C-alpha cells in the first residue's frame, strides 16, 4: 500500500524539516518565551491522547486479549478455560466448514479483485483520453462504491440474480439458462463477486488520478522516438502507474478478505446454498455470535489477521520487482 | 504530413470520441440499472414484481411506502431513520474531533516515538476489524453498552479510524509551515495555532472526513448486527436485515421502499458533494 510504503518517507520528511526549525530556534534564541522542549512534547501528547487511548484500549489490548482467548474455550458467560492449541487444531482437522469458508474466500478474492482492478484500469484509461465529460463519468462511476456497501444494494442484488430476476431472464434470452444464481452453489459466489466488480469506481478514481500525474512530455518523447500506443502503455503508463496499481491491489485485497454484507444478504445469513457463499467472516460471525464459541472465533480472527499479514507481506516483497518509484531513479 | 491527411486524421479522432462516449454511457447504464430497478420495484404492486418484466410498474403502488412507514416489529420507519441518524452524526462528530487532533500532532508537533507511532497508526488502517472484534465486544458488554449506540460512536471519539487521521495528516502537510511560525511569533501556543490557524485551513479535509464517516457508518451492517438486538434500537440497515430471511416475493414492495429510505441520505450526500468525495478518494491513493 502506498500509504505504508510512504510511511517512513513521509514521517521522515517533517523530521527533516524539524531540525531546521530547531536551528532557527537555536540561533534565534532572542525570541521570547519559546516554551522548553518538554512542554512542547506535553502539548503533543495532549493532542494525541484520544488516539493513544483508542489505540491502546481498543486496538492493542483487544489484539492481545483476542490472542489469549484463541487458546481458550469461552462462551462469554463462563470464565474462559485454557485449552492450548485445541482451537487451532480443530480448525484444520475437524472443521470442514471452516476449510470450505477459506476456499470460498480465496476463490472470491482471486476472482473479484483482479476483475475489479482490470475494469477500473480500463475505464480510467478510457476516461483519461476523454476531453469532455470526464468529470461527470468519474463521479457517476464512483457512486456504486458508496452505495454498494449497503444492505439495500445487497438485497437488490439478491433479487436481480434470483430465479426470474433480471439477470436470469437476460441469460435465458441469450440461450444460457442458469436459473436463480443465488440458489445455485456454482453461481452464488459469482453473483457476490459481480457486486464487488460493480464497485470498481473507487480504484478507478485512484487510477485516474495516478494517470493524470504522469508527465505528458514522456509520451511526447516516446512518440518522437516512434513508440506506438501499446509500446507507450507498456513502457510508460504501466511502470509510472505501478505504485498506484500496487496501492489498489493491496487495499482491495484486504477489503475483499473481509467481505460480509453481500454474502450475508445473498445467502439469507447462512452462507448457502450448500455453504457456497460461506465466507470466512460470515463463519466467524456464526461461530462467535450465533454459536457463542468466542474462543474459536478469536482463533479464527487471528488466522485472518495472519493471512492478511502474510498476503500483504508477499505483495510487498514481490512489489520490489514490479513497482517503480520515479524518485528512486532520481535519488 | 500533407494537407489532405489532416482532415482524415481529425475524423478518426471524432469517431474515437463517439466510441468512448458510447462505451461510457453503456457502462453507466449497467451501473445505474440496479438503482433504477430498486426505485421501480418499490412502486410495484405485489403481483407485478415477478409477473412483469417491465422496469416500470403499470401503476404507482404507493401503498408499499405506507407499509414501509409502519416499520418492523412495531418500530416505525421514522424511529429507525432517527436511530441511523443518531449513530451516524455521533460518529461524524467523534471522527472530526479526534482524528484532527491526532493528525495535528503527527503532522506538526515533535515528540519522542513519533516515527514508530505514525507507522503503527498507518498499520492499523490495514488491521482487519475482526482481530479486535471479540475483546471489544467483551469490553462493551462489561460496560453495559451492548444494545446501546455507544459501541458505534465511542470508538470514533478515540480516533480508531486511522484512515481519516492519515487523510488529515496528508492535508495538513500541504499547509505552509510559515503560518505556524508566524502565529508562534505572535505568541500563540500549539493549541491556539491548531484552533485558529491550522484547523480552519484544514476544513476541506474535515468535510471529506465528515461525509465519508457519515456514509460508511450509515451503511455499516456488521457492527450494528452484533451490538443492537432490540427492535427499538434497530437502524435502517438492521431493519432491512429482517427481510433477509423472508425472501418471499410479496414482501418485495415494502422491503425496497424501505431500502429507498436507507439509500436516500447517501444518494443526496453524493449528489451534493460528489466532487469532494471523488477527490478525497483520489488523494488517498497518492502521496501527499
UniProtKB/TrEMBL annotation, chain A:
Keywords: Cell membrane, Membrane, Transmembrane, Transmembrane helix, Transport. Its main location: membrane. One of its GO terms (biological process) is transmembrane transport. Residues 1-39 are annotated as: Disordered. Residues 1-27 have a biased composition (Low complexity). The keyword Transmembrane applies. One of its GO terms (cellular component) is plasma membrane. It is a multi-pass membrane protein. It is found in: Cell membrane. The keyword GTP-binding does not apply. The chain crosses the membrane at residues 44-71, 106-127, 139-161, 187-211, 232-251, 294-316. Pfam families: BPD_transp_1. SUPFAM superfamilies: MalF N-terminal region-like, MetI-like. Belongs to the binding-protein-dependent transport system permease family. This is Sugar ABC transporter permease. The lineage of its organism: Bacteria, Bacillati, Actinomycetota, Actinomycetes, Kitasatosporales.
TrEMBL record, chain B:
InterPro entries: MetI-like (IPR000515), MetI-like_sf (IPR035906). It holds the Pfam family BPD_transp_1. The chain crosses the membrane at residues 18-40, 85-106, 118-140, 152-172, 193-218, 251-273. Keywords: Cell membrane, Membrane, Transmembrane, Transmembrane helix, Transport. Residues 81-273 form the ABC transmembrane type-1 domain. It is found in: Cell membrane. Its main location: membrane. One of its GO terms (cellular component) is plasma membrane. One of its GO terms (biological process) is transmembrane transport. The keyword Transmembrane helix applies. It is a multi-pass membrane protein. PANTHER family: ABC TRANSPORTER PERMEASE PROTEIN MG189-RELATED-RELATED (PTHR43744), ABC TRANSPORTER PERMEASE PROTEIN YESQ-RELATED (PTHR43744:SF6). Belongs to the binding-protein-dependent transport system permease family. This is Carbohydrate ABC transporter permease. It comes from Streptomyces bathyalis.
